[in-house]
Structure formats: C-alpha cells, structure tokens
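README, section 4: Worked example with a bound small molecule

Sections 1 through 3 covered apo chains. Here we extend the same pipeline to holo records, where the ligand is supplied as SMILES alongside the sequence. The molecule in this example is fe (ii) ion. Nothing else about the input changes; the structure line simply encodes the ligand pose together with the chain.
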Amino acid sequence: MDPDERVLDPNEEPTPIPADPQNAPKPRVRRTHLSLFVRDPEASAQWYEDVLGMEVTARGPQWVFLSFGKKHHDIALIRAEEGAGTGGVGLQHYGLEVEGDLEEWRRLYGMLLAKGVPVVKTTDHKIGFGLYFTDPDGNRFEFFHETVTDDEEGKRILGLYGAPSEPVEIEPLRG
Ligand SMILES: [Fe+2]
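The generated complex, written as structure tokens:
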C-alpha cells in the first residue's frame, strides 16, 4: 500500500532517471504462466484436461485456471469477446514470475515507467501481486511477485477466493 495514499496514474509521464546500466533493475524470472483468450473456457478446459493432463484449480463463468499438478496455475483460459476470430483469440497475457522481494518488484515497476513502457494495472491476486504492461504491439505481460510461495497453499487460496484479482496501488521505486 502507498503510505501517502496517492493514486497512481498509469498515463502519467515517467520521470526520466539517469541511465545507469550497472544499477538498472533486471527481472530475474523464476517461473512463467500463460493466459489465453479462448471462445469457450469450459470446452477448452476439457481439452486441456484430456490432452495435457491438467487439473482445474479455479473456475468462474468467464475463466478457468488449470495446473500441471504442482502450481496454483500454469495456464488460464479467459473468455474472448463474442464473435472474436483470429486476432481476438489467443494471448491474453504472459506471466513472468520474478525473483526477489516486493521492493525489487517495485524497482521493476519504476524501470518500466522510466523506459516509457505502458503499465496497464497493478493487481492483488492474494497469492501475489501482478504488474501488467504491454509490448510495442500491445501484447500484455505481467511481472508476478509471488507472496504465497507454498504451492499447495497457493492452489487452495486460488480456488477458495475464485482466482482473486483486485486493483491495488503500490508505489513504484525509481532509481
Ligand atoms: Fe497472470
């Protein structure tokens, strides 16, 4: 939480920081997860269960989360817009689970802003914090800072709270 209760504006012009390649934060990715737009999450989930041997760890009307058995989720299937065809079905976001503490994650946030990368949102998933941003083509990525590192506990919370995703304001660290 931001102790000063400031509201972050993702469209705010980033404050340039001096280029210092030695100190620039670099993401140390630990694990990844994939989130896909599909036309019918339940039908697709059946395929992922049948073909890839995955198990459903959480589901809602618009999405199904699946695991290869260890993690709370490896793949999330999100309902695409009605009538979506090529281009509207596919990657929703690619999650990069980064090493380090919350401070390091906040430095990555500052790094994105400093580099003028569009930040979409910051989200509390109860099992971690998500920082969503886009590449030059609008493809969405997520730096995921895991707060629940026990995989069994992560699965339990994800299912219990229905894959929670709540907006959260966390101050980026710059420099
Ligand atoms: Fe994600």
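What to look for in the output: The CA atoms of residues 49 and 55 lie 6 Å apart. The mean pLDDT is 88.

Section 5 describes how to batch many such records.
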